[in-house]
Amino acid sequence: MFNHAFRRKRHVLLALATATAVHTVAFTAAAESTMPAGTNLNMVYEDGAFKHAPRADAHGPIGVMGDHRHHQGELMLSYRYTNMWMEGNKIGLDDVSPDKIVTTVPNRFFGQPMQSPTLRVVPTQMNMNMSMFGAMYGLTDRITLNAMLPYIDKDMSHITYKGGMGTTRLGRFSTSTDGIGDLSFGGIVGLYDSKTEDSEQHLNLLLGLSAPTGSITERGRILTPMGGAPIVRLPYAMQLGSGTWDFVPGLIYTTRTGNLSFGAQYRGNFRLEDENAEGYRLGNLHQATGWAAYEWAPWISSSLRFAYQSLGDINGMDLDISGPVQTANPDFYGGDRADLLLGVNLIGQKGVTCGHRVAADLLPAAQWSTDGDRLHLHGRLAEDPRRLLRLARSHRRDVLLPS
Fold it and tell me: Residue 38 in contact with residue 54, Cβ under 8 Å?
């Protein structure tokens, strides 16, 4: 537990340091432009001065992507940090103990050499850190191009049980992977815009592709029920990419009247290939979210957001991934999930902080998932707000670092 806490603190400090560097570079670049830092579609710059500062609710919650576009020729560089922590196991909605798993859950690979009839290795915790580097460029006022490349760091802790049956624990071990994930790129197309002094509406179409730049052949050392410590290919959850080209479309609508704003978004991830180089294909992903936000003052707004996702089954399997552990079984992936999130947006109003944002989405403990009788690690983005803190710097968007 101490190691996991230390790793989380270390990654938060690294994220802040990286955000500071990106912030400095982007601010310097903006200062050399005829359009000062912080300028965006919700600000007026005339005669060498700002006529009014931006609104905190000009953007949706930080967890929503594609809710804004840029002026023609405007460039945004961004950095975001996300931490996700999962602990414990569930079958459907019910918690299940490691002892019960190793005595009741069948091993898909039973019948192969050295494979027990039930599972004998149980994951207990998983921690994922993602640093997302992004860029957006206004091709025209109606079309914005974007690209994002993540760097992912994962670690998973396990308990190994001795032999082929019983509840005697042999020991614990951890595996880890890190590297770049899948590169995504595409565009945001404005379908409809309407704006008055006290209200506005926007409808954007998201069109993107995901390239298979993330590794799907990561390996690590494990502890087997017989006491061995071989290096093997790690399960699907520990890989860094999909291995396939994917189509990533979306549609987002936002509206504001006075200090109250609303929004809704759909995003999909559709695999464009039957299988990747290792013989499987991840399931299609559907995500829907809706939110309401209120601006308490020009520099601060808060939001309440409902998010739902449905992930399809893995098709096929990697023949190099096997073992008496649930994460090696492709049948234990996929399912539905819903979350309720609290958000806050802060934005500087004058001086060098004008247009720079600090934003966070916080996921309380309350959440549900429905995966039938599938066994899966229980996701938890707990009380510590750093676990869903995302950092970026932009002329218009997501500067999640105080200047």
Answer: yes
Find tokens 């995966």 and name the residue. Answer: 371
Instruction: Report how far apart, in Å, the C-alpha atoms of 26 and of each of 149, 186, 392 are.
Output: 17, 21, 10
Q: How far apart are CA 360 and CA 345, in angstroms?
A: 7
CB contact set of 197 (below 8 Å; sequence gap of 6+): none
* Three-class DSSP category at 402: coil
Say if residues 121 and 174 touch (Cβ distance below 8 Å): no
In terms of C-beta density within 10 A (0-12 exposed, 13-18 middle, 19 or more buried), how is residue 136 classed?
Answer: buried
Q: Which amino acid belongs to residue 203?
A: L
Q: What is the pTM of this model?
A: 0.79
Output the tens digit of pLDDT for each of the chain's 403 residues: 445 555 555 555 555 555 545 444 444 333 333 333 333 434 444 555 445 567 888 888 888 888 888 889 988 888 888 888 888 888 877 888 999 999 999 999 999 988 999 999 999 999 999 999 999 999 999 999 999 999 999 999 999 999 999 999 999 999 999 999 999 999 999 999 998 888 899 999 999 999 999 999 999 999 999 999 999 999 999 999 999 999 999 999 999 999 999 999 999 999 999 999 999 999 999 999 999 999 998 889 999 999 999 999 999 999 999 999 999 999 988 888 888 888 888 888 777 777 777 788 877 654 555 554 555 555 433 222 222 222 222 222 233 333 2
Residues written for the chain: 403
Q: Say which DSSP state 313 is in.
A: P
CA distance 284 to 335: 11
Which residues lie below 8 Å from residue 33, measured CB to CB, with a gap of 6+? none
Distance (Å, whole) CA 82 – CA 21: 17
Q: 151 near 130, Cβ under 8 Å?
A: yes
Return the C-alpha torsion angle 316, 321, 325, 327, nearest 10: -60
Contact 290, 48 (CB under 8 A): no
**Using only C-alpha atoms, what is the Rg of the chain?**
23
